[in-house]
Each structure stands twice: as structure tokens, then as C-alpha cells.
Amino acid sequence: MSAELNVSLSGQGYNEEGVPGVNLLHVQERYGEERAKRLRADGNSQFIEPSLDGKFKSFLGDPWIDPSTIQDAETMFPDNRCQLLILGAGWGGLLFAIRMVQAGLSPSDIRIVDTAGGWGGTWYWNRYPGLTCDIESYCYLPLLEETGYIPKHRYSSGEEIREYANFAAQQWGLTDSAVFQTKAEEMVWDEEQKEWQVELTQKCQEIESKALTVRANFVATVNGVLNWPKLPSIPGLSDYRGAIFHSSRWNYTVTGGTSADPSLAKLKGKRVAIIGTGATAVQIIPHLARWAEHVYVVQRTPSAVDEQEQWETNRVWFEKEVASSQGWQRERLRNFHHHFTTKEQPTINLVGDKWTSAVTMAAVSGNKAGPKSIDELPSYLETLHRLDAPRQDRIRKRVEAVVEDPITARNLQAWCPTWCKRPVFHDEYLKTFNCKNVTLVDTGGKGLDRITVDSIVSGDNSYPVDLIICATGFRAPFVGSPAEKANMTIIGTNGVSMSDEWGRSGPSTQHGVLDANFPNLFLSGPWQAALSPNNLFNIDVLAKHAAYILAQAKAKAGGHPFVVATTAAAAEDWGTQILTRSAPLMAIFGCTPSYFNGEGGIDRIPPDSQVVMARSGLWGHGIEDFGNMRGIEVHM
């Protein structure tokens, strides 16, 4: 499909139509050339998943575990049961628990299990130097009005976000609801008892590993989108004899420093290779350059790195200009989302960040102003490219202005539309390549050729290194069902396997929160729901919706046992509504390979499967329109 969707801009004279100085035909040709460098038949299979390959499980160790915080799972389930079991103790799981408490559930009726040793999810695991959220904190940190918390900076550090998660757990009495270092292995719906039977395994240092079976009236799968690290499948990776780790398991015993004080003193005199130039690596590399003898930055595809513009929060300004009225955070988020459209932008920009200038991210988050059918798609793509070209051109010129070496500058310029890769924001990254101890190893889109016992090899060049850091991301968030996201088995009514059913026909949900084949199971998206660059907002919409549904069902049951489920007819209708709004999201076809499009695999999906994919996908009119659907926004 991608070939048909690549818009032709020749002969249109766009330079005279609002894009001065940008040759859109040339830009399109360069986009195609760069995309071709990254295309490969193996798609997501080009990566190694340590959670599925025992040979690499050492990459999954928990460097942060505090045994004193771990409670014995057996003691946490009186009578081996609970009313609500939440899978995931990240911010998503916290939001589901908090919204359920606000809807009337007691914290003592809730149990939250996670393989981690504490709260935070991705913010628990990721503690690398320079870690900062790329969404402004006044939008990203949830519940600011409820807690009265004032973020320390415009963009919060990972340390602050994790501490705030602990604070929120305490505020809503959930500290004693957590069952850490515990994994759900299998869930089976018991039709007779109208409840879930769940097999759990707890593995931790201070408690003997054990398996237990618990029963839960309700379950919520909130397993996160960045939870299973992936490694590059480079020949010789397992042969390397130096120190090596994934960025989500940062080893401060090797580098020196801590997550609170990233003074990487142990890197003095060391040669370091970091594989990757995405959002994570962009934050790490300036810190490596300050301490290491030499840093080799291994790049396949450059990121479009815009300015961040960080600052400390001034309390007086925050209270007067930001949190000045009731409902301020919801209104700020609404204003943020309304910038992702190809139609008129809001006259007032409450956030004023570089995200709100990336309007063509509407191509992946949804756009009510987008095409209503595939026939309108070519015209829509022209509009996207015309709107996007000035931004990407400005960012490429920023590289030229900052990076002194012209060859390095050229290799750091991103040649793909904004919507094909998550935008990146940093004020120090590009300057780092002016340091004499930093070398960009640009691999022309194909990655390293091999790794030896002591070196990385690209083409004819070999670089001896003492440490390799894999900033290579995580399992693609849009691949598989909630069962795959959790590395577990989920069996619903009539013995239906979620993995099999979703793999064959896709989900059968209503509003993305309840699947007709899996009663009393609340889902957290993104399938058949909506998307925003701010993922916590996505999850909170569904958390509020799930809590409302459960509270209403409980009230109607009047104290009698009850089951929460959608009908097959309602699920079919919702799938049709998703399908009819899918056209605006088809701009992702033809993109440079990334986790957005399954490393290019989306382009190879057969036509009949594309219909299932579109029906299974996102609400194509954006998250605000999704929230305005009858029955969703009404109770938010």
C-alpha cells in the first residue's frame, strides 16, 4: 500500500504556496532514499527480546531492588482472593487503582502486581543519566489538582516522576496494595463462579520463589507500553567480553554515580559505545561525553532534535498563570491536544512547547479534520507534507548551525516526516558532537556489522570499547494483545485464547475498555481506543471510564453478584466505528521503519488483514473526539 500512498509533489509549485525555500519534491525524494536504507524483511524480528530468550536474560536484572519493600505474595491475598487485581504498578496501574478508589472501591480490596520492585513502571526501570520526560510536567504528571503538587521543572526528571508515583500511592492508601516482584503467568475465566483464576509467580531475593493461585472478581491489564527491553540482533553480541547493559537497566556500579547524581566518574579513561540515537540516547550521550575518554555513537537513523527550553518552576508564576482556576489541568491538556490538527490551530497556546508546533503528529494521534475515506488520502498527505516541511527544514538547519563538522552535521539530519518517528527535544545533544572525544558512527541505516570480544565493527572500521550501552528501546507497543504485552496467557469465555482471537480477528471491545470475550476484564488501550503524545492521559481516560462502568454496575446490582461485559453486537458496532474513522491514520504507511509502524512491517500486511488492522486500531479522529463520545466524556 505504501507505494500508492506516497504523494507526488512534482509540478505543484509549493514554494510559492507557503513553504518558501523548501523544495518539497527534493524533500520527498530524500525521504524515499532514507527509508530505503532502513527497509528490511525481518521487521520486528531484527531485535532480540531478553524476556523471551534465556541466553540474554541477564539484561533484565533489577538493579534497584530494595528487599525491605517486598511483601510475601501469599500474605497479600487473604483467602487467596481479591476483588480487583491490577496487572502493572506503573503510572497506568496507579491511575486505574486511584480512579477505582475515587469511585468507591476500598484500597484493601485492590491488589496491584508487578515484576518490578517498586512503583513507577517505566520510571522505575529507567534511571539513566539525563532522564527527563519530553511532555511538560504540568500536563504529564496526573492528579496535580487533586494533590496540590507543583512540579520542580517544566520537564520533570525521571527521579521526580518516580517519587511522585510513591507520593500518589500513599495519598490514596495504596502502599499496602502492591505485590512487587510478582508476575501473572496465566488467567482463566471461571464461567461458573463468574471470576478470574490467576496464576502468579513471585521471585525475589529475600523470599523463596513461589507460585500461587488467586481469584479475582475483576482484573485490569495495565502492563505499560515500554516494559520489555529489546536488543539489536548484531552478530557477536554475546561474544563481547566488556561491560554491556541496556539503558533501562543502567549499571551505576560500572559507570559511577547514581540516578540522583549522575557523576559518571568510573568512565574516566574508558571508551564507550552507545547503540541508538532515539529519545533515550539523545538524553544520555551528553552525560557520557562529560566523563568518558571517548564516546562512539552508533546511529542507524538520526532523530529530528528540536529545542527543549527547560526551566525551574516559579511557584508564584505557576499559581497565577497555570493553576489559576478549577479544572486548569484538564483545560491545559485539551488545549495541547487541539494543536494536533490540519485545520485551524487554537488562538491561545497554553503550553507553548515545541510539541504544539509539531501539528502533523495528528497523523498518528488522529485528526477529525483528516480524510473521511481512502480516496481523500492523497490530498491529505499533500497537506501533511506541506505543513510539515517548514518544521523539519528548520530542525535540519539547526543541525547545520550547531554541529561544526559538515559531514557529522549531514549525517545527523533527519530525513523523514515528523509523524514517522517520535519527535525529540534536547538543548545539549547536538553540541556534544563538537567535543573531540565524541565520534558519530553512522551506519547508513543498517546498524553495526558485528561485535567482537572487545570492539564494535562498522564497515571497514573497528572501534575498541570498554563498555557498550544498548539504547535500543522496547518491544513495539502496538504489537500483540494485552496477553503478549504481559508475556502471559489469558483465556476467556468458552476457552477463547486472547492471543489466538486477537491474532485472528482483532479485539472485540466497546470503547477499548471491555472485550466481549473476556468479562470483568478492564483494558488500558491503545487498541480500539485513542492516542495522545501524552500516554498517561490516554490511560487515565480509560481508567476513569472503567471506574465509572464498575461503579454503575455495582449500583444497579444492588448488592447481588454481577458481571461486567459488553455484548458482541456492541463490540461489532464499535469496531465498525473505529474502521470508518481509520483513514487519517493511514499516513503511517510508507514511513521510515520505527516502532510506530512495526519497523516497516505494516506496509507488508495483506489487503484483507489491513481491514482487521484498521478495525483493531485507534480512534482516527483524535483523543478529544474519542472523549466526547456519548458515555465517555460525560463522567470525566
UniProtKB/TrEMBL annotation:
Organism: Amniculicola lignicola CBS 123094
Keyword Protein transport carried by entry: no
Domain of life where this protein originates: Eukaryota
InterPro entries in UniProt: FAD-binding_Monooxygenases, FAD/NAD-bd_sf, FAD/NAD-binding_dom
UniProt keyword list: FAD, Flavoprotein, NADP, Oxidoreductase
Family: Belongs to the FAD-binding monooxygenase family.
GO molecular function: oxidoreductase activity
Record-given protein name: Pyridine nucleotide-disulfide oxidoreductase-like protein
Domain FAD/NAD(P)-binding: 83-305
SUPFAM superfamilies: FAD/NAD(P)-binding domain (SSF51905)
Keyword Nucleotidyltransferase: no
Organism lineage string: Eukaryota, Fungi, Dikarya, Ascomycota, Pezizomycotina
Entry cofactors: FAD
